[in-house]
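agent: user wants the structure for L-asparagine permease from Acetobacter oryzifermentans. delegating to structure tool.
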Amino acid sequence: MTASSTSDGHTPANAGARTEDGYHRGLGKRQIQMISLGGAIGTGLFLGAGSRLQAVGPSLALVYLMCGVFAFLMLRALGELVMYRPTSGSFVSYTQEFLGPKASYIAGTMAFFNWAVTGIVDITAVALYMRFWPVFSSVPQWLFALLALVLITGMNLTGVKWFGELEFWLSLVKVMALGGFLVIALVILALRYPVDGHATGLHLITENGGLFPHGFLPALVLVQGVVFAYASIELIGTAAGECEDVKSVLPQAINNVIWRIAIFYVGTITLLVLLLPWNTYQAGVSPFVTFLSKLGVPGIDSVMNVVVLTAALSSLNSGLYSTGRVLRALALDGAAPRYLARMNKQAVPSAAILSTVAIYLVGVVLNYFIPSQIFEIMLSLASLGILSTWCFIVLCQIQLRKKIRRGEIAPTSFPMPGAPFTSWLALAFFIGIVGLMAFDYPTGTATICAIPLLALALAWGWRRIRSVPQHNAVPQTVPSVVLTEDFLVPHEGSDRS
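agent: tool returned. relaying tokens verbatim.
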């Protein structure tokens, strides 16, 4: 494998090598930076911001800012963990080390649950977006869902470099779309050009109910919805395990996330409410389409449909990548069936990826039978997985810092700022969001009511795993690199690093 060079012209010593978990270090600085950038931009902004503006008005910018700060703190906690020990098992591996096998099982299962149901949402979204164009209106929805799944599965099985390359270009489309909007919006504001007969500026906020037109409480409750717009930004920690030069790339990538949140979310929402009255935007319609259509731009609906289609494909791509690594980490820790640790000759966890795809195929079937009912249900269920993932990341960082203070572990070069206070504050914020979900009737309330059932399912699964004879489980005393070599196909022996 040919090692790639860094931006300064030097080739990292470990470029193209295997990690201790058996993965190739195939992701370069360009790809890691774009994954971190694209992970913070999803359909929650492109499509969901319209309904949220309708619900709370201009205060949505403040809600995005607050949630963005805590999402960034979670990323800094993950960054400290990665700098201590990079791993493609990501937070599941850290949970095993700092919180024990049962916590690792719960963390990994909830993460898998989150991405599994989100994947069904994503393939449904892709199918819906494709049918937007009249030429495809006669094509069955389930067929587009299946084609999207085949494409993303192929890219993930081919190798991590192909995954990174696809995610780079998908993220680039999203970034360019937002960048184009920001330029157009700033020019219109600077020239005081009227939009849809309205003069632009701050008066559009003050003359339409102020920052909180519906009061403070609706904005507070909306926090539980907005925080999920940042879901998948933690993917940068998983991808770092297969990065060629993680020590220099990761800190910069994480630190850049905060200003990207400020520009892409807070800045974008602020511009939207300065260009048109907030009540112009509608649920189910991208606010960018609403704004640009008021300018009389022809074909803008098709352009934005391509962008949201790209966002859905990017989410599906990232989700399949993440679940493959999470499931394999669970298998290596003895908390999942042994076969999930198998890798193909491209050093990709093929067994875990294909197992996830089997669940996604259920989504294809659901697209055939109930195409319109599954979207909101799956999104609500995924929210529990997202919050649990973030909570486990922060809990692991808290334990890491305790060991550092006791002198058991050397301090990292990328400590979380303000810890342990900021760690506990972030944890309290994420737990508080779960409480707010109960007030989001009916989907949020139903999700909270489902927690006891989910807990019973987790307990049943844990008992089943513990009851498996030891020779069928992955031995805890065998290093993961030895296990990886055991699972590699025989003809790959001459190519091992």
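agent: one observation worth passing along. The two ends are 10 Å apart (CA to CA).
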